[in-house]
Design brief:
The chain is α/β, with parallel strands linked by helices. It folds into 2 domains: 207 residues, Ribonuclease Z/Hydroxyacylglutathione hydrolase-like (Metallo-beta-lactamase, Chain A, 4-Layer Sandwich), CATH 3.60.15; 65 residues. The chain is built from 6 helices and 15 strands.
Length: 293
Amino acid sequence: MTDLSFDRDFDVNPGEAVALSPQVRRIVVNNPGAFTFKGTSSFIVGRGRVAVIDPGPDDELHFAALLAALRGETVTHILVTHSHADHSPLALRLKQATGATICAQGAVAPARETGLRLDASIDHGFAPDVTLAEGDAVTGPGWTLAALFTPGHMSNHMCFALREEQALFSGDHVMAWATSVVAPPDGDMGQYFASLRKLLDRNDQIYHPGHGPSRRDPLPLVRGYLAHRRMREEAIRARVAQGARSVGEIVAAIYAGIDPRLHGAAALSTTAHLEHLVAQGKLRKTEGIYEPA
């Protein structure tokens, strides 16, 4: 069973710490937009001795809201799902204020910068104190956060599994409000497909994504993501077979109904699909032109 029905019913009060479970609180940044929906979500995990996941952009009001929510508690770890500019920049200031250790998969090389700006631009100043590998875990009283490497949306994307609640902090890998952008050269569609399939072997009961509402019973949504990407890729291959040669032609044909503000992101995801089709031998690329194989 698949389910790509999106949930955009997400009323938030930016800066307010909302308890989602005994161990999880969410604070949303006041940075709404075409890529961020109602804003980026920061999460506090635990009570007393806690971890913060995705501190967010370098926003003064959000920094103050985080410190207010954390008053009287000790932040031991700062975990970052990926180093896009709406997720990671505040990590350094939070570390300086709390003494916590920044943990993530790693940084992204400057040469891999994409052309997509706004909230999806890369935070090249990001550098974790501790580089996490698949299965590495950080712990506190009553909580364990295990790293799950999920490249695709970004080459250093990680999800974090809260074992005690069978919950997954899914970053921008899987969200309930919309599909995720895969933007070359750092984003990779082949990796993204593999990272989606990886989730199918897990028993997480709820996802807490980086934007929008949480999603219970998430596996139908993951299957829906996979089906949608397969359908999109087939539509792109069909357009090339019919004579389309430019990314612009393809985007105009198959993304006609989306918000015009997202056309740049659609072009990047289309390019990612084209490159994936070339890698599979289903298309060939000659001097920047895509043609049937």
